[in-house]
Amino acid sequence: MSDPLRPRASLRTAVVWDVLKDALDRRVKAERQGGDGARDALDVLDTGGGTGNFAVPVARLGHRVTVVDPSPNALFALERRAAEAGVADRVRGVQGDAHGLFDVVERGGYDAVLCHGVLEYVDDPAEGVRNAVAALRPAGVLSLLAAGLGGAVLARALAGHFTEARQALTDPAGRWGEGDPVPRRFTADQLSDLVTAAGLRVGAVHGVRVFADLVPGVLVDTEPGAMDALLRLEAAAAEQPAFHSVATQLHVLAERP
Length: 257
Known about the structure:
Layout (H helix, E strand, L loop, with lengths): L6 H26 L10 E5 L7 H6 L3 E6 L2 H13 L6 E5 L14 E7 L8 H10 L1 E12 L1 H10 L3 H9 L17 H10 L3 E8 L8 H6 L3 H13 L2 H4 L4 E7 L2
Parallel strand pairs: 1-2, 1-4, 2-3, 4-5
Antiparallel strand pairs: 5-7, 6-7
Helix pairs in contact: 1-9, 5-6
């Protein structure tokens, strides 16, 4: 998943990718132990997958990935990216959104569903999660990534925008003002509640970008060893509940019983 030409991008995705890859590997192992009809390649649905930041690396693992995104431009970029990576035969892009998901994909047809950066923008987050769950096969895995409330509050405060920080803290949607580009943010408990209400069992919650968005880029890019050290710090902090409340994003991994 890491791209040596985009070190800051790897900081923002490393934790989620490690958790997701491990979950997919476990799912493949379970399939192999299932005997007849066992499959090494999973069917993965990436809702709001855009240009394929996760879809293409998942396809590189040998899985079949369907990306649903409302943007034709993003899907065009996805097609090009998949071709360049040599996985065009395993990546399919279709235009659609979380609300009308089953207008374009099969209900109950996927071993894993990625719902990354979607719930912030849909009108009804609960419906978005229910649709993602309905796309899963039995024992399927949901990877849910959404904007964290605490990270936005901390970032505004550290930038000296104390009124905006307080606004985000008290606003029901977690927004710091009219100029806020993110329509909605969540706490770890809110995301977990959405998942359990949809019938899944929460396996793990991780804080994402706990430090990455706060550390000056010049330090990471120029200080020898700083990138690797920060990646290790992010991985260690991600599993600690104390840091979930200040993470820029929150990742929930859940399974369908």
